[in-house]
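Hi team,

Filling in the usual template for the complex we talked about on Friday. All components are listed, including any nucleic acid strands or ligand strings, so the model treats them as one assembly.

SUBMITTER: L.P.
PURPOSE: interface mapping
COMPONENTS: two
RESIDUES: 562
SEQUENCES:
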Amino acid sequence: MFGHIVAFKQFRPSQGIWGSKWAGLDNFKFFFSSDDWIHVTVNTLFLNSMFIFFTLGIALILAIFLNEIRYALYKRLAQSVIFLPYFVSWLVVSFMTYAVFNTSDGILNKLLNAMGEGSYNWYGNANLWPYILTALFVWKMSGYVTIIFFSAITAISSEYYESATLDGAGRFQQILHITLPLLRPTLVVLLLLQIGRIFYGDFGMIYGIIGDNPILIPKTDVIDTYSFRALRSLGNFSMAGSVVLYQAVMGLITILFFNWIARKIDRESSLF
Amino acid sequence: MAFSNRLFSVAVYSFIAFFVVICAVPFWMVVVDSFASESSLQTAGYQLFPSEFSTYAYQYLFQGSQLWRSYSVTLVVTVVGTALSLLITSTMAYVMAHKKAKFGGLLSFMTYFTMIFGSGMVGFYILVAIWLGLKDSIWSMILPYLLNPFYAFILVAFYRTIPYEVNEAATIDGANEFTTFFRIIWPMTVPALATITLFYALQYWNDWYLAIMFVDNYHLHPLQIMIRQLIANMNMQSYLQGGNVSFDKPLPVKGVQLATVCVTIGPIILLYPFVQKYFVKGLTIGAVKG
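RESULT (copied from the run log):
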């Protein structure tokens, strides 16, 4: 909390927090006077919404489908492989991404060449990257969420399904009318946890994969990478501090707002 | 009806199979290509079935000093970090869950509060780099992760399931607080502790945020940062060899990158079959507690 004071100072490491001059709101003026703050806010919100929507959606489908599989070995193996990407760091993912997408010898371009198409410069088109990043996020994280959903599904009493079968419901109808409604609380909790952090970009991911690539930064820079660059590359503590404080305030408002909404809809599913 | 059920089954099996292939292919590619010869990597690019086998990239990597340095940094950070965080998290959670301990509520509040309203990156940087003076120190990669509030609360929930009579019985039998905790409470919570230990170990092994924030000295680069340096491709030869560059051996650029990634994810993949169930258990606890 205390560190936020830096945002109102002209911080120099040699003078310490108290020794540095007060700067009033100058740091904020600097941040808000350029268009950067709009870009990074929009990017953060857009990327995180895509991540949340697709990861939860695909994990839900995966968990339900896994539950439909009757061969135990296939089920266990599939579960393990889907969970595996969660265990490697974003830098490793970044390397794999490069091996797939790079122009001269990436697997994707080799595939395109084999089909008679020309090579495409994936790293040259910033507009594609929000979608590529979403795909990568789904690749890495959906296994994690799948396991949460899957354990929630296995906790559902089998009596529901038995009586539904007696009533002549098909498997698809059982999913629609039993599994999905009973998964709703889990889904709501996960959704709330994620939305509460929607102003916090995934630094490890974005900086690991995009790094300082100037072509891709306009479409992929999030608040966290922006303030990191202000701090570590420019060495401007106070400017980074004002960005971080802006993020913390927005994040707090989001949490309170969505918690309030959750309590309106369903008292049980609010976080506090 | 039967037909639509069968159609549904086909959709289920193929969707899962598709996703499994997507998840597995990058791993396959990295491992297999690290054993491909550099010339085949240069001409044909990354492939799923390389034509020429070679271990040259590994030989080159192992003979340089940077890999061993980075490996020891990562190992030390992981082992020391995991051990310390297990100790701190479990003792902290025990106090928060303890009925008779003072300030338990205050501790919980402080843990929860800082989990939601941290000081942000800048305050964190000033604290670690300037006040604690840990810049370019191995402790800067260990200390900040010692207490993960989320794991602490999982443990608190776990300790609360142990009836307080256990403590009373131990006290009557003459055990002091330390004996009670380490000899009686710890063994009762082994499943939860194992899960948390593994989550911490994974976090330390995969972390590079702290390293990129606080460590500029390449002697202290962990494996993850080494991968990053190799991708950035600056002065790769002298970086790997640690100063004394021998130009008689050509540098297998791509091979070395692939081989470094493999030795980094190698331990995880080898241990994965044995530890996966603990991670699944950890997620399940988290899901139940919300």
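MY TAKE: The mean pLDDT of chain B is 83. The CA atoms of residues 185 and 233 of chain B lie 51 Å apart.

Thanks, L.
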